[in-house]
Amino acid sequence: MHILLVEDDPDTAEFICAGLAQHNAQVQHCDNAERAMLSASAHAFDVIIFDRLLPNMDGLDAVRILRASKVTTPIIMLTALSDTADRVAGLEAGADDYLVKPFAFAELYARLKALARRQPLRADTLELVIGELRLNRTSRKVLRAGQEIELMPKEYQILEYMMQNPEQLITKTMLLEQVWGFSFDPKTSLVQTHVSRLRNKLDKPFTFDMIKTIRGSGYLLTGATDG
């Protein structure tokens, strides 16, 4: 991945750069919004990591300018502001994701990979296909090995998000934000309960499990058999 990191705090920037280096990612670091906007407009990046609170310019204003300039690179905003209103403001400004400090690097990296893989919705992506699993986003019909699977709305949303990010770690926090719109962890078994119900319908009647648990981290959807 080729990442543009916009972060004025040296310790945070070093933490992120060190983590990305372990994954062989290329990182260009800018410590102010003006320089970052020039780089984002002039070069192709897979994802932009944008700090919200920057000297001389609010990160929200910088993101608005980039979007107005037709820069479509996925953007994840980092901030110490945890209120729901702040998260909504970031998304409305044009950010694709929003992560509150402090955070674990594994959480950031999972989100970066998901954003880097995201493609604009086209006619030929109205149907998602992973192995023997098919999801039609128009009819909301789900088939596995030709057999229709009846899902409740939240189960469908979880599966759709997983199918948009196959073979990628999906954390509990990511599901809470993408499916329920929560910017905080309600400290309940909400995600586990719905994923368990989804698995009972999607995996239990078949010969191998497509939803894998990554212990202590989250879930992964795969089309590959265990054998």
TrEMBL record:
Superkingdom, according to UniProt?
Bacteria
Question: By its UniProt entry, which Pfam families does this protein fall under?
Answer: Response_reg, Trans_reg_C
Q: Does the keyword Lipoprotein apply?
A: no
GO terms of molecular function? phosphorelay response regulator activity; transcription cis-regulatory region binding
Output the Gene Ontology cellular-component terms: cytosol; protein-DNA complex
GO terms under biological process: regulation of DNA-templated transcription
Q: Which SMART domains match?
A: REC, Trans_reg_C
Show the PANTHER family listed in the entry. REGULATOR OF RPOS, TWO-COMPONENT RESPONSE REGULATOR
- Gene3D superfamilies according to UniProt: 3.40.50.2300, 6.10.250.690, Winged helix-like DNA-binding domain superfamily/Winged helix DNA-binding domain
- Identification of the protein by name: Response regulator
What keywords is this UniProt entry annotated with?
Answer: DNA-binding, Phosphoprotein, Transcription, Transcription regulation, Two-component regulatory system
Coiled coil segments of this chain:
none
